[in-house]
Amino acid sequence: MRWRASIALTVGGDGPVSSIVESEHGSEGSAREWVERKLPSTRFPAWIPAARRRDGIELFGRVARGRVVTGRLVPTWESDTGTAVWHADRAGDQVQWRRCPAGER
């Protein structure tokens, strides 16, 4: 099992989620440290116009445990369905964590 840390964006609270950058780690602590280092300085992708950034588009961090499934045409990340997921929100230069049940975004 590995821990995947990612910085992602979402449109509205329940809208689609798109990962911007991901990193795999051997421990939960290492994955969370990566998000704490990267998330505060992450900027919106250039393809999102500045005027749209007020329309409920949010950047956030995520840490989930899982594994890479090989043997398919394209290797795929598969989250461990029984493990809670950590979500990180930006609060200025700080990160606020919340633990979400498995299966939530």
TrEMBL record:
<protein>
    <submittedName>
        <fullName>Uncharacterized protein</fullName>
    </submittedName>
</protein>
